[in-house]
Design brief:
By secondary structure, the chain is of the alpha/beta class. It has three helices and 13 strands. Strands 1-9-10-4 form a four-stranded mixed sheet, with no helix packed on it. Strand 9 and strand 10 form a beta hairpin. The chain starts with a strand and ends with a helix. The N terminus and C terminus are likely disordered.
Length: about 180
């Protein structure tokens, strides 16, 4: 499940640049989304649409293949709220992953939007970093099941990222604050 960046407080969602995109064969993977005109940096390109589903429904629809490759159209919005682009989704579900992406994502309520993180030229493929939270250490076997094929200089070899459990993360943050207080 892909993650997203939070829109800054008070950030307005600019109107999409008018579907200046098309889906066609990609050199990265399967089908991809390409700019049909130049898209300026910061422009909202498209909303990621699909059916809203729970974490439990993800497990039912898309159980992890422990022996082969995995693929998903699910985008995490917040705890227990996910968008399944494979059901009722639009062109956005075909935007491929890249470790050196030209787009990013942000949320506004329960909606996810894709925007240009850099100026995108006519004909260029749109990509964003899926940053799928592994929820466990990234082992070679886990990374093999969730590979990245972006081919960029900065490719990390997987669409996954390791996120420590929230409890540990909060405890580390708290410990860090205490350590700073002791040093002062």
């Amino acid at each position: 499940m892909a993650t997203k960046k939070k829109a800054a407080s008070g950030t307005k969602v600019a109107a999409p640049v008018g579907l200046s995109i098309e889906v066609r064969q990609s050199s990265i993977h399967g089908r991809g989304v390409f700019a049909t005109r130049t898209i300026p940096e910061g422009a909202t390109i498209i909303e990621y649409t699909g059916e809203l589903i729970t974490d439990d429904e993800i497990e039912v629809r898309y159980p992890e293949n422990m022996k082969g490759l995995n693929h998903t159209f699910v985008f995490g919005v917040r705890d227990e709220v996910n968008i399944d682009g494979g059901v009722g989704g639009n062109e956005s579900r075909f935007i491929n992953h890249s470790c050196d992406a030209n787009c990013d994502s942000f949320d506004k309520g329960d909606k996810i939007f894709i925007r240009a993180a850099a100026r995108i030229k006519t004909g260029e493929e749109l990509t964003y970093d899926y940053s799928i939270e592994a929820g466990e250490p990234l082992t070679p076997d886990l990374m093999r099941r969730w590979p990245c094929v972006c081919g960029t200089k900065f490719c990390r070899g997987t669409v996954l990222v390791h996120e420590p459990p929230k409890k540990k993360k909060a405890a580390k943050k708290k410990a860090g604050k205490k350590a700073k207080k002791r040093r002062s």
